[in-house]
Design brief:
The complex is a heterodimer of chains A (about 250) and B (about 90). In chain A, helix 2 (about 35-60) packs antiparallel against helix 6 (about 120-150) and helix 5 runs antiparallel to helix 9 (about 190-210). Chain A has helices at about 5-25, 35-60, 70-75, 85, 95-115, 120-150, 150-165, 175-185, 190-210, 230-245. By secondary structure, chain A is mostly helical. Chain A has one domain: Ferritin, core subunit, four-helix bundle (Ferritin, Up-down Bundle), CATH 1.20.1260.10. Chain A contains ten helices and no strands. Chain B is α+β, with helices and mostly antiparallel strands. Chain B is about 20% helix and about 20% strand. A three-stranded antiparallel beta sheet of chain B has the order 2-1-3, with helices on one face. The termini of chain B are far apart. Classes of the chains: A mainly alpha (about 250), B alpha+beta (about 90). Chains A and B meet through helix 2 and helix 6 of A and helix 1 of B.
Chain lengths: ~250, ~90
């Protein structure tokens, strides 16, 4: 795997956690109950912490002297490599938790594999992140089950959230040249295997939540390649990056 | 919405060997979520190694208006404190 490809691979990991972490942080002070507000803030902070590690390493691999902060705050939309799922808007609380569960499930399986990565830095970061993500998954899947198998109102909202986000699942498993190189080098996991395990666990979870998976194989793509982000990411970045854009180099 | 969820009292053990201590309360739909919420609300700064959650309605509490009959009688019974014994020096601090 060339350093350029490893850089690209690390950006994907770091941008996933950065973009989702920022999305989740948008709930701070707005969640339906205090307990969920704090739990969401904890999740967001975990993801931002993971971002520091992934993007910090990415900057070292790139060798151009860019820090994790530089990568987070000074790149534009087309330079981001997160999957489209993570940049989707929060919607209602149910939609946020559905997005979280769909990502956590993939994240958990991926980090489990990355913990055995042939790259010791990747393995080290993955081991630390995996503990946090195991809890994220427990929490988000319990909430999806609780709301899916809840009242007619909550069930309807969760089914609508699943239908809305369904086309964004496939991108997480569609390997490209970078993923193939990572697999060859023993750095990254076999995404086909991850998908098989993901689909099985998801089916079980949706069953418990009394939700039905849409019969729609089409999947969106273009996030992790940076080719075509959805319109939502740019709006998010204007919020996330405004301070560094307005006051370049500001520190405190 | 929160008023529909029952209230839980949360007890956390700070270190192995210490007792669980009451740290506060929160709302949650069931026991499992009460533990998770307690983890998020009360152990963010590494405060605990074990969590107990008890639904508040299961706690029997004494009534503040009964404090006269309940506690005042013991005020005048100094003989209940074992302070009338001579402790041999070799017993050391007790």
């Amino acid at each position: 795997m060339s350093p350029e490809q490893l850089f690209e691979y690390l950006l994907r990991l770091g941008d996933n956690t950065l973009v989702l972490g920022h999305r989740v942080s948008e709930w701070c002070g707005h969640a339906p109950v205090l307990e969920e507000d704090i739990a969401l803030a904890n999740t967001a902070l975990d993801l931002i912490g993971q971002t520091q590690m992934w993007l910090g390493y990415a900057g070292e691999v790139e060798g151009q002297g860019r820090s994790a902060d530089d990568l987070a705050f000074l790149r534009d939309v087309w330079d981001f490599r997160n999957v489209l799922l993570t940049e989707q808007p929060n919607g209602d609380f149910g939609q946020t938790m559905m997005r979280q569960m769909l990502f956590d499930l993939w994240h958990d399986l991926t980090l489990e594999s990355l913990s055995e990565s042939s790259d010791p830095r990747v393995a080290e970061i993955a081991v630390k992140a995996a503990k946090e993500v195991r809890y994220h998954l427990e929490r988000s899947s319990d909430t999806v089950i609780g709301l899916g198998d809840g009242t007619a109102e909550s069930h309807g909202r969760m089914q609508a959230a699943l239908d809305l986000l369904w086309p964004y699942i496939g991108e997480m498993f569609t390997p490209d040249a970078v993923d193939d190189a990572a697999l060859q080098a023993g750095i990254g996991p076999d995404m086909v295997q991850i998908e098989t395990r993901y689909r099985a666990r998801l089916a079980e979870l949706l069953g418990a939540a009394t939700l039905s998976a849409p019969d729609a194989p089409f999947s969106q793509k273009g996030g992790k390649s940076g080719m075509r982000h959805s319109e939502h990411l740019g709006h998010m970045l204007t919020q996330m990056q405004w301070l560094q854009r307005a006051y370049p180099g500001a520190t405190w | 919405m929160s008023s529909e969820w029952p209230l839980w009292e949360i007890f956390i053990r700070g270190q192995h060997g210490l007792n669980h201590r009451h740290v506060g309360s929160l709302h949650a739909p069931d026991a499992e979520m009460a533990i998770k919420n307690a983890r998020d609300v009360y152990t963010r700064r590494n405060e605990g190694v074990s969590i107990w959650a008890v639904e508040a309605r299961h706690i029997a509490a004494s009534s503040p208006s009964d404090k006269g009959p309940l506690y005042e009688p013991s005020e005048s019974k100094v003989y209940r404190h074992p302070t009338f014994f001579d402790i041999p020096d070799e017993a050391g601090h007790m």
